[in-house]
Prior knowledge:
Layout: H1 2-35, H2 43-57, H3 59-64, H4 72-75, H5 80-114, H6 128-153, H7 159-175
Helix pairs in contact: 1-2, 1-6, 2-6, 5-6
Amino acid sequence: MRRLLDRLYAASAWLAAACLASIALTMLAQAGMREVGLLLRGADDIVGWLCAASAFLALAATFRHGELVRVGLIIDRLPPAARRRAELAALGAAVLTVGYILWAAVSFVYQSWQFDEVAQGLIQIPIWMPQLSFVIGALIFFVAVCDEFVVLIAGGTPAYRKAEQAHRAGADLEEAP
């Protein structure tokens, strides 16, 4: 199960990276076409959708690598037993919050589909299509937060803490004379 989840998080991060690369390619194409007098219609729409997709698809991997803003500034200063309780409370709150975000995202996209809402920009497509990246990213993020919560309940070390420890160890080596 661990390998499957890790592959899911990695695939989501790769999709986010592909979205970023697509943003760069779209903007370069738009600039290049402008130089020869051509117009890439809808480029702003495409870039906006890709930007949102890259942000949501990267959440799970970013969280697991300890790169999201967390409550570590407070929790790191607590003794081990209090830290564990505080971290469980924080992850429990995160499970509820991200679960609500996922529910709201699904409801939002479902309503867009239900009402046949169409994008308002130059590209007239059903808006639920680009919005789907919001749901997928929120779902994978929810799975990642639940994953870390279960690891912590089972007495393990969450991936974000391992990543922070590795980062600190690397920073210590860089500072050595």
